[in-house]
TrEMBL record:
<keyword id="KW-0472">Membrane</keyword>
<keyword id="KW-1133">Transmembrane helix</keyword>
<feature type="transmembrane region" description="Helical">
    <location>
        <begin position="110"/>
        <end position="127"/>
    </location>
</feature>
<protein>
    <recommendedName>
        <fullName>Peptidase family M50</fullName>
    </recommendedName>
</protein>
<feature type="transmembrane region" description="Helical">
    <location>
        <begin position="70"/>
        <end position="90"/>
    </location>
</feature>
<feature type="transmembrane region" description="Helical">
    <location>
        <begin position="43"/>
        <end position="63"/>
    </location>
</feature>
<keyword id="KW-0812">Transmembrane</keyword>
<feature type="transmembrane region" description="Helical">
    <location>
        <begin position="139"/>
        <end position="157"/>
    </location>
</feature>
Length: 171
């Protein structure tokens, strides 16, 4: 969830005429993106939320072709929606969170809370439908190996992407 959300910021900063000052996408760390002067900061903030919801949805749709992976993919997408919705709804309580920055930029806080709660509710519903299927699935030796290889590949891709973005930002 964190990677898909943060990628929205990373892509939106240069597209809106801003300059990336710092990006941290490394696994095991809280990701962050700092932009230099930017003419459209609200677009950059919304890009994080939207990519955090849409990228997992697109991945789940694509992965659904493989029936054995579909419940896991939809469970992950649901978790991303749940976490992203809660972050939008309650992020105004943390000074540096994206929601608080939107409010500082003039967005009224009252519509952000119900929107975030609605997205979180859809995510919760999706999780409740998908994760029981994942848990009930019979773990075969091959299935466990494939699952661990998928997790290792995700961490490796995130590590490589983080290193590439860090180099691009530094010069």
């Amino acid at each position: 969830m964190l990677l898909t959300h943060e990628l929205g910021h990373v892509v939106a900063v240069p597209l809106t005429g801003g300059e990336l000052a710092y990006v941290n996408l490394y696994p095991g760390q809280i990701p962050s993106t700092l932009a230099g002067p930017n003419p459209r900061p609200a677009v950059v903030l919304w890009a994080g939320f939207l990519s955090g919801w849409l990228l997992p949805l697109l991945v789940a749709v694509a992965v659904s072709r493989w029936r054995s992976m579909a419940p896991f993919a939809w469970g992950w997408a649901g978790f991303c929606w749940l976490a992203g919705g809660v972050y939008l709804a309650f992020g105004g309580l943390e000074r540096y969170a994206d929601t608080a920055q939107l409010i500082t930029l003039g967005w009224p806080g009252w519509p952000l809370v119900p929107l975030g709660l609605a997205v979180a509710a859809v995510g919760y519903w999706r999780c409740r439908r998908s994760w029981p299927e994942v848990v009930k699935a019979r773990a075969t030796g091959r299935g466990v190996v494939v699952a661990w290889l998928a997790v290792a590949a995700w961490v490796a891709v995130q590590q490589l992407l983080a290193a590439k973005v860090a180099v691009a930002v530094q010069g």
